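Risk register update: the risk of archive-format incompatibility is retired. Evidence:
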Amino acid sequence: KKRRRKRAYARLVLDSCLQKGLFFCSAGVEQDENASLPSKLLLFGFGFFILISVSAYVANLAAFLTLSTTDSVSSMEGAVAAGMTICAHPAVK
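Archived output:
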């Protein structure tokens, strides 16, 4: 009987944590409270994956935007004089 009670409490704690995690990962949109545990786990995993993906994208974008470059040119003549490679569509020739 004690083991059964412990399992019930563990299930309630897991269910509550998943519900709060889903609320956080889904930008505050309420989910179905009567959803099954596998459904909640799947939604939580997907939300966590999206959270990590967006965080990595924003970090990469911030690193790219703060990169200082000294190889800037203001005209095509300046690029040719500097010996830079110029990429263009073949129709531009």
